[in-house]
Backbone:
């Protein structure tokens, strides 16, 4: 007899470092926007693996492409090129400001690469004193030592010092604060998310990203957009910055890039690429054994091709607007309980006066998977293929949970 869900949960309790706080279910299969646990319970998935699985689960065309690639080539390292990585880099730069790509395996790693690029960019430009990274309060950039150091939420840094630095934090959306720090011309780069997702789905105020672009141009600072969560269609455009009339020097990607297969990328202009370009006779300045892995890049190519064929970016914009309208009714219907609705495309937050984790737990009991973003927000980040009837079902379950009073301040 294969182990039951209860047995697997008991085993997990014994064999894992207890860093996470998983919900008490063991998922074992999925289809589209639905997943099933080991005990046979069905859940509507509005998390998509934390804004990852845009194509949903077990997408037939995606699986066919992965299977074909498995039979051909999985990994050769960066001692050689592989066909998939070259096509994958081209697929990215065809859709954004970028001219050059470095592949890695996760969002934190992409941001690490961007930090290294930023520092060395100035060394090669003969301004080696520009060490500082400017970041924003409430941001989230990853879990490596350097990326927790530039994450503007102290809870992620506690216990891990001495940290990477110098880092200067400024208020998100505050151009005057950014101007003051950047004017010192000691910053290598400013890093910012077009939407602070883990910070509670906070959309950059109009003109903020363009204002930062101008400040960075005036002061010779590199501008990095962390699009790990907002990139690859999630906001209803290919990349989150495309809602504003502005482009960064460097953009970091991961999450949705491989449709669920781990892959990250640093994307940059030709000029910024000098920060990670090998010098004649010099060492390789940055590398990753798995970066550009043929299988992961085939997943990226399949994800982008399927998103194009199925018109998923436009679909995200439409479905996102529909979801936002449905959620907005909760603000009116639950005064003193639901505060506001935030976000763009299919990255939406419902801010509550009480504990969002209680809302998430109650919804799970009712067959709906959601996640928490920040201290007060319940996050919707469903697969891009989500149907209206599924959005209706999800909002209905959330409405029921709120009706029972969960997530309301005492
Ligand atoms: N940057 C942003 C904006 C993120 O949302 C995340 C993850 O949530 C990361 C970086 C870290 O990505 P990863 O968990 O793949 O390292």
Residues:
């Amino acid at each position: 007899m294969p182990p039951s869900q209860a047995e697997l949960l008991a085993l997990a309790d014994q064999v894992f470092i207890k860093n996470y706080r998983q919900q008490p279910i063991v998922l074992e299969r999925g289809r589209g926007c639905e997943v099933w646990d080991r005990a046979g319970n069905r859940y509507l998935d509005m998390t998509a693996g934390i804004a990852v699985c845009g194509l949903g689960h077990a997408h037939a065309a995606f699986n066919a492409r992965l299977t074909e690639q498995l039979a051909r080539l999985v990994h050769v390292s960066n001692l050689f090129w592989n066909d998939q990585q070259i096509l994958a880099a081209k697929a990215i730069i065809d859709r954004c400001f970028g001219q050059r790509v470095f592949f890695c395996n996760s969002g934190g790693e992409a941001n690490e690469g961007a930090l290294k690029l930023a520092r060395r960019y100035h060394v090669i430009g003969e301004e080696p004193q520009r060490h500082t990274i400017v970041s924003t309060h409430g941001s989230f950039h990853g879990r490596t030592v350097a990326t927790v150091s530039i994450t503007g939420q102290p809870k992620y840094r506690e216990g891990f010092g001495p940290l990477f630095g110098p880092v200067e934090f400024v208020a998100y959306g505050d151009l005057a604060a950014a101007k003051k720090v950047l004017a010192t011309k000691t910053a290598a780069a400013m890093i910012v998310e077009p939407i602070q997702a883990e910070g509670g789905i906070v959309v950059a105020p109009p003109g903020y990203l363009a204002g930062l672009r101008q400040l960075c141009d005036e002061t010779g600072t590199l501008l990095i957009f962390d699009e790990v969560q907002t990139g690859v269609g999630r906001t209803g455009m290919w990349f989150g910055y495309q809602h504003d009339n502005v482009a960064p020097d460097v953009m970091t990607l991961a999450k949705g890039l491989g449709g669920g297969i781990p892959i990250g990328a640093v994307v940059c202009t030709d000029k910024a690429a000098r920060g990670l370009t090998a010098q004649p006779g010099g060492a390789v300045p940055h590398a990753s054994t798995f970066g550009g892995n043929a299988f992961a890049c085939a997943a990226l190519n399949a994800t982008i091709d399927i998103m194009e064929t199925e018109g998923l970016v436009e679909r995200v914009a439409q479905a996102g607007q529909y979801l936002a309208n449905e959620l907005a009714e909760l603000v009116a219907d639950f005064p003193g309980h639901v505060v506001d609705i935030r976000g763009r495309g299919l990255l939406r937050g419902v801010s509550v006066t009480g504990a969002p984790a209680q809302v998430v737990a109650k919804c799970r009991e009712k067959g709906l998977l959601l996640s928490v973003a920040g201290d007060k927000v319940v996050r919707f980040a469903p697969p891009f293929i989500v149907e209206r009837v599924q959005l209706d079902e999800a909002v209905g379950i959330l409405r029921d949970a709120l009706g029972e009073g969960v997530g309301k301040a005492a």
